[in-house]
Amino acid sequence: MTVWFDLHQRLTETDGTASASLYLIRQEMTVSQKHLGEFCEALKQYLKNVSAQRDCFHVTAVRLPDGVSFVVYEFWDGEDEWKQHLQTAACKAFQHVKVDTLCQPETVSTVAVPAAWCTLNRD
Fold first, then answer.
1. pLDDT of 87-96, one tens digit each?
2. Tens-digit pLDDT profile for residues 92-119
3. Per-domain residue ranges of the chain
4. How far is 11 from 17, CA to CA, in rounded Å?
5. N or C end: fewer C-beta atoms under 10 angstroms in the chain?
């Protein structure tokens, strides 16, 4: 209930008008076993930096059962905000670590989540 309430609040701007959507980013990465420690440290720092950004509603990472694959989910206020984030030092630093530690290119997918889908169920 709390997460959906927070999401509903986030989608309503301070002037009371509804935001059109949130922008969901999904990054899936497979890390080289020998670089796992370096990657995990960089991921931890990246999550800390992203979660502090005003335009990022939520960020989380999931380690998959194989132990070397990770999925990062980021919810941004919009596509423009995410693209601005891509130019930040924190994002560029994490990108460099990914180049050095991944055993294959990451898979990135994006989707705009309509605000109308994010309603608060008061039942």
1. 999 999 999 9
2. 999 999 999 999 999 999 999 886 666 5
3. 21-113
4. 9
5. C
